[in-house]
Design brief:
By secondary structure, the chain is an alpha+beta fold. The chain is about 20% helix and about 25% strand. The chain is built from eleven helices and 27 strands. A hairpin with a 2-residue loop joins β4 and β5. α3 runs parallel beside α5, α4 packs antiparallel against α5 and α4 packs antiparallel against α6. The relative contact order is 0.10. About 10% of the residues have low confidence.
């Protein structure tokens, strides 16, 4: 079974069976549906001054009468502070009386007309003014613990956070349900009989140490922690937003490098990873801790260059590269497309993420330049057929070398030079001089070098959602 199928099925499972939240409303007599329903009247509700966090637990009770009483209580309360909890309950009440009652309450409290959980999450993302009731973090901790008790280590009462807790959603897997690779095994390229020439890899080279990490393996793990060329690194790969970002994990002031893994949570369809030392939640796209002990620490991981390319191209450029072994310590179907093939082929998102900027389609690929002082992205389609693009990011003149067919883009400083394509894909020309395209720099025939700049591929919705407000879109986008 693919991860995308598992996420959909787990996401549809009801938490209602086995949930003991009815105890929080013990002694309350309830019957049938809330007022305004076509079916029945509601019995006595909890007192108006009851702790909303306790009432919210009733939204997930095993008995429908308790669930309906909790819905009716928030409905009658008449404030929007219960809206985030009602939206969470809607995910697990997709039909029947509870679904009808939740929709009625949400429409009454907000004036909006959403039809399902996906639409209501998008509405919530568009309305940051909606704040949850006091004690929402305590309710959230209990709610997530019913899915996986291990989630309590992430979501706790009075925790620090710089993202809306209301928008953290379960990604359909348990803690470490998508297991990270830690110092994985490699093989020589001559032993890579499992990989096809056109399979895509994440190519990394540091200090002459070249490694190839096939996407068909990383699709199942979404994270590796490794040491390449003596530098501790982590590739945080969010399959849902199409971005594999290479971070340095040694941070000034800390004795040991961070080791990262997948929490099982998402924020706007982007992976929330966590570090093993503090169990803080980190934004995969920005490399910042956003919930938990490290929030507000000022830590931001340094982004390193990484290239997606075909195994054929990577091996040709790096004959001595090492290739990630299939012996990962996990039993998975590592065939091409086995994990997320259906999702990658679809224009639709699996989880809600608000996309305000419609210059591109949400799942159009872009190349995101990082660390230049200006966030800038270019549509991958600009590199169709193989292209060399001279451009600028802020005050830095850059040249982009890419091929959309293999999802490959590399960015380099170009100073005052204008580059054109060279004799092949691994060479450029400027002022009649030949320049080699390497992983670290452009290298001229006379020895001059122009450094490579960090960047990565991503879906448009992810870049636009996290960096678009302060960033720029390069090229001429084409909205289909």
């Amino acid at each position: 079974m693919s991860i995308s199928t598992t996420r959909r099925q787990f996401g549809a499972l009801s938490l209602l069976g086995g949930v003991g939240a009815a105890a929080s409303l013990a002694g309350i007599s309830i019957s049938m549906l809330p007022a305004g329903s076509a079916m029945a009247q509601v019995g006595p509700l909890p007192a108006r001054d009851t702790d909303p966090a306790l009432v919210a637990e009733g939204l997930f009770a095993a008995g429908i009468a308790t669930r309906l009483a909790a819905i009716a209580w928030f409905h009658a309360r008449g404030t929007t502070e219960g809206v985030p909890a009602l939206i969470r309950a809607l995910r697990f009440n997709r039909s029947g009386a509870s679904n009808d009652a939740i929709l009625a309450a949400l429409r009454h409290l907000t004036g909006a007309q959403g039809q399902n959980w996906f639409q209501w999450v998008l509405w919530q993302q568009a309305h940051p003014e909606i704040k949850a009731f006091r004690g929402h973090d305590r309710f959230l901790s209990a709610y997530f613990a019913r899915i996986d008790p291990a989630f309590r280590i992430f979501i706790q009462e009075a925790m620090r956070h710089e993202i809306r807790l209301e928008e953290i959603v379960w990604g359909g897997v348990l803690k470490d349900g998508i297991p990270a690779l830690v110092n994985p095994a490699f093989i020589g390229p001559e032993n890579g009989s499992y990989i096809r020439p056109d399979d895509l890899v994440f190519g990394v080279e540091v200090n002459g140490d070249a490694r190839a990490y096939p996407l068909r393996i990383l699709d199942w793990h979404e994270m590796f922690n490794d040491v390449v060329g003596g530098v501790p690194l982590a590739l945080a790969y969010c399959t849902l937003c199409g971005s594999g970002i290479l971070f340095e994990t040694q941070v000034t002031g800390r004795q040991a490098p961070f080791e990262f893994a997948s929490s099982g949570f998402l924020y706007r369809s982007n992976k929330l990873m966590y570090d093993q030392a503090t169990h803080s939640l980190w934004n995969q796209f920005t490399g910042r801790p956003v919930a938990g002990p490290l929030t507000g620490s000022g830590i931001e991981l340094k982004v390193r260059p990484v290239a997606i390319t075909s195994w054929r191209e990577w091996r040709a450029a790096h004959p001595s590269t090492r290739l990630l072994s299939l012996e990962t310590g996990h039993r998975r179907n590592y065939a091409s497309g086995a994990a997320y093939g259906a999702y990658f082929a679809s224009p639709d998102l699996m989880f809600p993420a608000l996309t305000r900027d419609l210059r591109l389609d949400p799942k159009d690929y872009v190349f995101a330049l990082r660390g230049s002082g200006v966030e800038r992205a270019w549509p991958l389609e600009l590199f169709s057929g193989g292209r060399v693009i001279n451009d600028a990011a802020g005050f830095i003149n850059i040249v982009l070398v890419g091929n959309a067919a293999t999802r490959t883009v590399r960015a380099y400083r170009r100073d005052a030079l204008d580059f054109t394509a060279g004799r092949d894909a691994r060479h450029l020309a400027a002022l009649g001089q030949d320049w080699r395209v390497t992983e670290a720099a452009l290298v001229a025939s006379d020895g001059r070098q122009l450094d490579r700049l960090p960047g990565h591929i991503a879906y448009w919705f992810a870049w636009a959602g996290y960096l678009g407000e302060q960033g720029e879109l390069g090229g001429t986008p084409r909205r289909r």
